[in-house]
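Supplementary Text 2. Reproducibility record for the structural model of the 287-residue chain.

All settings were left at their defaults, and a single model was retained for analysis rather than an ensemble. We include the record here because the model underlies the residue-level annotations in Supplementary Table 4.
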Amino acid sequence: MHTREEQMKAFGRYLDVLDALRENCPWDRKQTNESLRPNTIEETYELCDALMKNDVGEICKELGDVLLHICFYAKIGDEKGQFDIADVCNKSADKLIFRHPHVYHPSQVGAEHPRPLPYVPEVSSESETADYASASTVAEVLDNWEQIKQKEKDGNKTVLGGVPTSLPSLIKAYRIQDKARHVGFDWEEKEQVWDKVREELAELETELRKEDKGKATEELGDFLFSVINAARLYHLNPDNALEHTNQKFIRRFNYIEATAKKAGKEIKDLTLAQMDGLWNEAKAMEG
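Retained model, structure tokens:
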């Protein structure tokens, strides 16, 4: 791996390339925050795909594409006199320092500390984080993280204020449940969630029998929310779980379609029994 000096040199070279493209490339010159946004979303999802596949080469490449967008937005900010990449890095570093008092609080930083506090972060009051300096477990760190965020000068003013409105609904549900948990709004025992899941399923079935689409849609949302809650309580990521199932379905369905084509048929010409049989074949091949 590279030394810190080599890493900093590579990052500087990257910024130099971006500067040159912004000045000399017609496409780069015309980009704005608004024009880049759709591409940023696409690049983020491509990175997520690479992460799900655990494809190291693709992860490295897609990280570069996402990094390009981060630096590009900072470049546009610099041109407008708003902020530059140094501000982005420093603000992020300040935030990390403030939210990790168990590492950076003066009570934890001594002469023997491998990375002493480089500067005082811009926070409401350094003393406000003193109570969190003794966190020693992952759970304590996560709980402290959410509470400390609300003490920052420009931080979230409410517990759920930091959940982006544009998050996909499944991920958003998980995040708001998790944030509520950090301030004590959660089941006392995780097994209690199953009563709620069964209750919501029963209410959904009732509305479906009534054929009331509006009420059924509402109850479907409640049921899905309760299932996501159960996943969270059992430390399962519902988004990852669903994506694994999506990919599994795609593989098996593609096998059915490919097998039908080899036999000179269209998939719609197969009977349901034939499709079920091929599905089970695909399933068996997965082991």
